[in-house]
Amino acid sequence: MSLGKISQAADRIRANVGKVIVGKEDIVDKLIIAILTSGHVLLEDVPGTGKTLLAKALAKSIDGEFKRIQFTPDLLPSDLTGIHFYNQKLAEFEFRPGPLFANIVLADEINRATPRTQSSLLECMEERQVSIDGTTHALGRPFLVIATQNPIEQQGTFPLPEAQLDRFLFKVKMGYPSTEEGIAIMKRFMADSPLEQLEPVIGADEIEAAKQLYTGVQVSDELLGYMLAIVEATRKHPDAALGASPRSSQALLRACQARAAIQGRSYVLPDDVKAMAFPVLAHRIALRSVQRMRPEAAEQVIGGILASVPVPADPPLVGRA
């Protein structure tokens, strides 16, 4: 697979998901980028905006196994990872895998689970494996966690700690459809769900090949400095109690490379950095108590930083030849 074929594969996935999901091309692109970069996505929006449907459509499009986990306060880590149980017929212990053993895992209302259960996701999200009773089990390839949470209803929830938020490549919002999109949705689902007829357009081998290639997208030293300046500015901002971590700069770099690849480019542009800065960095900064109550405050901090950090003047457009 070449870099050009990555954009072709992304076009196929985007078009296939578009048979079910009306609009939301930008969200679909971010999910594709997350798959390429082995990242994960936190979808924050009210119920009924199509989060589950989007995850199912993506899983079908990549011929992957889909599992949905409803997070509740009584959910245990073993409910996610699986358990060893004694099989009386065989007179031996067997491993029963949990729902994490899938390609697309929807962690629905993740903030309703206790911190203990939330922390059980850390190893699988970072290492693509789970350890149970001293035994390590590899997870599927590709592996993507799509977690959801309702920003309005906070009663009975456990806010995600910074260590958990830092594991998510993106935090994005679905948003309500426009009037035209709402009419198109009603027409599309009037008779039957198009999800039932959806067919795969790409396989796991092709995805794994693409994941090995996107890192070949070139980034100039000027743009690397631009990314780092943005990340460092979050640590000095007066409204930030905790700035973006070094992991954030790596995540921003990978996201920019993958965005360029799915758009058919072998080089990163400043526009890639500007587009990826909001979903990559906003959830990775901890605001001071005065600002924390404003949902849009983190995005405003990133917006102010982008406006203040100088964009490289005519950075070398490597890889154009």
UniProtKB/TrEMBL annotation:
Signal peptide: none annotated. Residues 37-178 form the AAA+ ATPase domain. Keywords: ATP-binding, Nucleotide-binding. It holds the Pfam family AAA_3. PANTHER family: METHANOL DEHYDROGENASE REGULATOR, MOXR FAMILY PROTEIN. Transmembrane segments: none annotated. GO terms for molecular function: ATP binding; ATP hydrolysis activity. Belongs to the MoxR family. This is Magnesium chelatase.
